């Protein structure tokens, strides 16, 4: 009788172990499916990450190329502007030199046409002041134009 009771207890334990074994098999299968799904998701995520990194790198290279082209165009424009400024300054300088030469020629002409006796010192002084003012006005105009440039 004791052996039968023990046998029935062992059968009960065996049934419980069988149920537990089936549950564990189901859980293992479920975990294996979950692991496979996650591995596929992980590889897809890695591929997507690589694609995003590659696209971002291409965009950055493209933007850098655009910036370089813009900076080159800006440098070329700056060079042209400097050249224009230099030629304008040279032109202004030449115009002022011509104006001074013209004024000096006119002063010489006036001096040579007027005899010393009829050309008193006061008249000469007035003429000198007049030409001095004209010269200062030319200088002022030149500086103003240079500032505008």
TrEMBL record:
Domain of life the protein comes from: Eukaryota
Pfam families: DUF3496
Domain annotation DUF3496: ranges: 93-149
Family annotation (InterPro entries): C144A/B/C (IPR040118), DUF3496 (IPR021885)
Name by which UniProt lists this protein: ANR26 protein
Organism from which the protein derives: Elachura formosa (spotted wren-babbler)
